[in-house]
Amino acid sequence: MSAGDAPRLVGVGGIFIDDIVLPSGQTYMAQLGGGVIHALMGMVVWGERPGLVAPMGEGFPPESAERLRRSLDMRGVYHLPIPQIRAWQLFEEDGSRREMYRVRETAPFIQGPQPTDLPECYQQSDGYYLIQDFEGIERWCSTLKGFVLWEPLQQIMTRENREKMRQTLAACTPDLVSPNLMEAQAVYGVDDPDRLIDALFEDGVPKVALRMGEAGSLLADRETGYRVHVPPVPVETIVDQTGAGNTYCGALLWGVMNGYDLRHAGAAGAVAASFCLEGVGVVDPTRVLPAERDRRLRALLG
What is the pTM of this model? Predict the structure, then answer.
């Protein structure tokens, strides 16, 4: 593998297989999942072919493997001699979700790749999407040379980890951090989105994309003082909310790395997320018509 054929963008995380149960009782079995997969497909929606760094276990569904090979550079995927992680995703009427693992050994998938798992050619990539805990983002930021978008793991975003958040951002500086609104509120004990942006800036974050669900997203740049709200793309029928935020982050990173300002990059993220909401599981880029994609972007940018 040579540096010359490195993918421009890379995602680091875990591949999951989800068995989804909706409140109606409708089930969708063996669905491709995992935050990093959602994020990378958000990039693919915009024509990118990013690289994936992730473990893959035994018994991985062939149709899911083919979907990955069709859209992604797979040289960063390594195999584990244990069953592929699989989980029930049980959704309630209020939108909450319970996750129940269906295999015994989950730690290697949840902990995900380490910097030593990064292929040599990926070390020359321009941008990286990382869904990591505190220790993970510190390890990766000390290794990577390109632009880093950090999506903090949901499990670590609690009030008890307020000081740990500050310490982590003092020890390493991801270029862009994108929590969702509820996670940021939990850590900082503040409800107002603008004050949350200010708190992240005080902790040293250069750029923030605060994801607010049906309220859209709030993006800001500490150096320039630029701050903008990007509304969501109207979706007639929401089929599945799983992974929409991850999809947004991947497309957002694509936009930033293409030189777009935060408003344009955030709009690209919102468009990709809208396609995710309209289907079950990971968005299938082959079903996204470029003309409709571009129409949604134009409408959002006005």
Answer: 0.94
